[in-house]
Amino acid sequence: MKALSFLLCALVALIAISPGLKAFTEISTVMRVEVQPDAWAHVKETYVVRLDQADDVETFESLRKYGQNTLISWRNFLPILRYHIASSLTPNNTTISARRLFEVSSRTAEIELDYDVAEPIFSSEKVGSRTKRFSLQNPFLNFQRTASGEALLSGSQSFILVLPPVASFDPSKFIPSPTQSDGSTVRWSGPASGVWRISYEIEKPLGDEVSEYFSTLYAQGVSAIPAFLPLGLVALLAAFLFSRFAKNR
């Protein structure tokens, strides 16, 4: 009897919660990160899913047309949706858009999450008179984690990094190894895991360094004028008195 009572309770609980279950299949998740020369980044995450139940199609359309277009409301529908590149600060300029991909199928949908990371995602250090090296800060990768704490890309996920056009780097030295590299764009397609090591260098043009040097020198000269102004006035007064004395002689 106890076993039967337990099964009945479990069945009632399942019936009670089943209307709220979301049934979808993740087709792909692409995280595209465009890095600015100052190491700040704009991120676009594109989620493509298949809505497995007719009710979920209706829920998707209702949320898209009439719901609150916020990360929280969309996460209630699509729990895999989140900031995959994030610091301890809330990202800026977040926008969310959603649409049906009828060209694929009537039950295929796409959600895009755009935002600016609130802090530089690469740390920088000076390695030459005109050269800075930028290194990825692993904590900014809000990926799934393995038992040992390594950042993990699942088989349906891709990570695209668009580095500044002026950056110089060797993708063969990146860890893990990229799936593809084309110009300043580097791509990883899952599955992949590890402690990610990505770095690049930017060399400041010689003309910029010369211009910066003279700008600094000029600023220092202007700031020094007030200190030498009294001496200049004394010198002018002395010259005036000397000229008057010379005329009188």
Spatial strand order of the main sheet: 3-4-2-1-9-11-10
The total of helices stands at 4
User: Would you identify the regions where 5 or more consecutive residues have pLDDT less than 50?
Assistant: 1-20
Q: Which assembly state applies to the chains in this document?
A: single chain
Residues in helices, as a percent range: 25-40%
Biggest β-sheet description: 7 strands, mixed
Overall residue-averaged pLDDT value: 83
Structural class of the helix and strand makeup?
alpha+beta
* H/E topology pattern: HEEHHEEEEEEEEEEEH
Strands, count: 13
Percent strand: 25-35%
Rg calc: 31 Å
What is the CA–CA distance across the termini?
Answer: 132 Å
Shape from CA axes? Answer: elongated
Describe this structure in words.
The chain is of the alpha+beta class and 249 residues long. It contains four helices and 13 strands. The strands form three sheets. The chain has a seven-stranded mixed β-sheet with strand order 3-4-2-1-9-11-10. Strands 5-6-13 form a three-stranded antiparallel β-sheet, with no helix packed on it. Strands 7-8-12 form a three-stranded antiparallel β-sheet, with no helix packed on it. The chain is elongated and about 110 Å long. The N and C termini lie far apart (132 Å). The model is unreliable at 1-20 (pLDDT under 50).
